[in-house]
Design a protein that fits this description.
Elements lengths: L25 H21 L3 H9 L5 H14 L6 H4 L5 H8 L6 H10 L5 H11 L3 H17 L4 E3 L8 E2 L13 E2 L1 E4 L5 E9 L5 H25 L4 E7 L8 H11 L4 E4 L4 H4 L2 H5 L3
Helix pairs in contact: 1-2, 1-3, 1-7, 2-3, 9-10
């Protein structure tokens, strides 16, 4: 069966990964974030201006983990347009202030806003708690897949980060692939270490709009790159898109992914965890097209 053949019952092929219920997690959120919010307030009271507040957070001697949490509070109060990913780079501190400092909320307004909030500020803690689990469902999806694969195919090997970690680069595993950067989440190899399949894992709690279009377009590019590689090297490397979650049944996602399989001319498959036994077979992974 192709992915399109599952569409009529697609909801039954989705794996749901549990999340915490609100407000059940507020006690845990208070334990995690109350000190960071308090520390931010003290630094704000002692800063000359909002730019200095950022400098003071970066120079306060926090561990990397603690500093990022205080920066999350800074972003909410001072500069919601700048990502934490950007703020956390100490070496870019003055560049950020130069380029985006005009948009910082002034320090007096920050202090006033902070003073008006209840203590403990459960609303802010709940928001920060949502960040804590960002990416965790994807890690759980990947871990479940790795466990399934190792049990199902002990004669093969699967490599890649199961949770956090750097992506693999195809150039390091595919001869003659070239020097360009093409990351992948995991690679499946046969008994001799030959690459059979490269793979990408995503858990979508929600999906839509331009983000959906970007994902599909990027995946099509990956397939096209492998088709070209196989044609040039006489290989049959396959690609798996392990996609799961309720977002897969929203909008045109199912149809779009079905078209990706057709575009792949036999080398591409889109699977959920519940489809693995039926669709991710040894014959398909090893078959020469």
């Amino acid at each position: 069966m192709d992915l399109k053949d599952y569409k009529a019952t697609n909801g039954s092929w989705i794996t749901t990964i549990d999340s915490d219920y609100y407000p059940d997690y507020l006690t845990d959120a208070e334990d995690l974030y109350s000190d960071y919010i308090h520390n931010f307030g003290e630094l704000a009271n002692n800063a000359r201006n909002s730019a200095d507040l950022l400098r003071n957070i970066n120079s306060a001697g926090y561990s990397q983990k603690d500093r990022i949490q205080v920066l999350r509070v800074f972003r909410k109060y001072v500069s919601p347009t700048i990502s934490v990913e950007m703020l956390k780079k100490k070496t870019q501190e003055e560049v950020i202030i130069r380029d985006f400092g005009d948009g910082f909320r002034d320090i007096q307004s920050v202090r006033s806003a902070f003073a008006l909030r209840p203590n403990p500020d459960y609303a802010l803690m709940a928001i920060l708690y949502e960040y804590k689990d960002r990416g965790q469902k994807g890690y759980k999806l990947t871990s479940k897949f790795f466990n399934w694969f190792r049990y199902k195919y002990p004669e093969m090997s699967i490599i890649g980060p199961e949770t956090m970690g750097s992506d693999l680069q195809l150039r390091d595993y595919l001869p003659n692939f070239g020097d360009h950067s093409t990351p992948t989440d995991f690679i499946i190899q046969d008994e001799n270490g030959e690459v059979l399949v490269v793979g990408y894992a995503r858990y979508d709690s929600d999906r839509g709009g331009a983000q959906e279009d970007d994902r599909i377009g990027g995946n099509r590019d990956k397939i096209a790159q492998l088709l070209e590689y196989n044609s040039a090297n006489g290989t049959t490397v396959k690609v798996i898109f392990l996609n799961d979650g309720p977002g897969l049944v929203l909008g045109s996602m199912w149809d779009d992914y079905s078209e990706l399989e057709e575009f792949g001319k036999g080398i591409a498959k889109v699977v959920t965890l519940k489809m693995l036994d039926d669709r991710l077979t040894s014959d398909w992974m090893r078959r020469e097209e």
